Amino acid sequence: ANQLYERAIELDSAGALYYEGAIITQIALGDFGGAEETHRRIAEKFPEHQTALLAGSAIATARFDYDLAEERLRAARESGSPNRLTQLALGFSEVQIAEIRGQLGEAERMLEGVALIFEQQGDYGRYLGTTMRIALYDVLLRAEIDRAVDRVEAALARHPLEEMDPLERPYEMLAVFYALAGRDEQSRAMLAAAKAVDDQASYDKSTEDEVARAILAGNEGRMEEAIRQIRLADVGECSVCALPVLGQIYDAAGQTDSVVAVYERYLETSWLYRLASTDWWALAGVYERLGGLYELDGDTEKALYYYNRFAELWKDADPELQPRVNAARRAIERLSAEQPVNH
Predict the structure, then answer these.
(1) Nearest CA among 12, 23, 83, 85 for reference residue 57
(2) How far apart are CA 280 and CA 211, in angstroms?
(3) Which residues, including other chains, have CB under 8 Å from residue 66's CB and lie 6 or more apart?
(4) DSSP string, 69-107
(5) Which helix (H) or strand (E) holds 266?
(6) Confidence class of residue 342 from pLDDT cuts 50, 70 and 90?
């Protein structure tokens, strides 16, 4: 695929779209140097194209370098692109940097502004999707389930699904949200509604359908079924999207060796859009859990490595998340004291 994208770039001097495909494939191959060079070429030739403005920060986040990503986003902002959609995309990338650092209050403030824009434009599907993302902070990171559900249901009362075009109703996303929140009956209702729309429109169901079914099976203790369902979602170009949920299901099933294997695979797999896909909510927890599992296994070196990665990532996280950071730091102190001194 990368060879074909490179050939397309050579043949079509006016085309900017092939550069993004080339960068995606280069990152998937682990060729970060090649991706940087492709980005340099498009930035030089098409400086106002969205890929030129966004890919540099995405390459940095694929390498877990969020300081560089932030620097590149700031430079792209200062370039003053007149394209409103590009400015919105740059703003959303800034939201993701705040999320990955555990700065949820700042991310929430920014996303509420994005939700307002979608609402003013009459794009109620994206308005609901943005509202659900904010609510997921409470579900996935703050353990404030009731508050999350109240937020989403207030948004649904404000803009009922029935008033939207059927193809714009975020049924699958709602199914995942309700399953994560433990509202199984509501999740199943969303899945049934999604199936009715998909059948009528002759569309294939999204992988979110399988994710929701996997979480529902896990909620009911049907762990083998949960694993089977989430593996069905591990398809398409995103090579990391299903892995955090698969790891969590293995964890709930008590299969800790599989948790470690899946989480290590998650971290080792290169994907250009991993921050936007899953890292924004999953990466900190993966570091934290691997630190704990390696500590239990007696592998002090690896435990220290992952605890340090977690503590560094969330060093400036919101106060409500700092107890987890402090626990990791205590583990680092404890394990460091236990390590033998090499003479």
Answers:
(1) 23
(2) 17
(3) 60, 97, 100, 101
(4) HHHHHHHHHHTT---HHHHHHHHHHHHHHHHHTT-HHHH
(5) helix 256-268
(6) low
Tokens of 265: 């695979």
CA distance 257 to 267: 16
As a whole number of angstroms, the distance between CA 225 and CA 227 comes to 5
From 182, 258, 259, 170, select the one nearest 215 (Cα to Cα). Answer: 182
| pLDDT range class, residue 143, cuts 50, 70, 90 | very high
pLDDT the model gives residue 9: 92
- Give 167's contacts (C-beta < 8 A, 6+ positions apart): 197, 201, 203
196/199 Cα distance (integer angstroms): 5
Which residue, among 68, 73, 66, 74, has the nearest Cα to 97 in the 3D structure? 66
Say if residue 202's pLDDT is above 60. Answer: no
The pLDDT-based confidence of 35 (bands split at 50, 70, 90) is: very high
Nearest to 48 by CA among 101, 90, 96, 97: 90
Going by C-alpha positions, the residue among 55, 67, 64, 65 that lies closest to residue 25 is 55
Q: What are the phi and psi torsion angles at 196 (to 5°)? A: -65, -40
In a 10 Å sphere around its CB, with 0-12 CB exposed, 13-18 middle and 19+ buried, how is residue 101 labelled? buried
Question: Which of 288, 270, 192, 208 has its CA nearest to residue 245?
Answer: 208
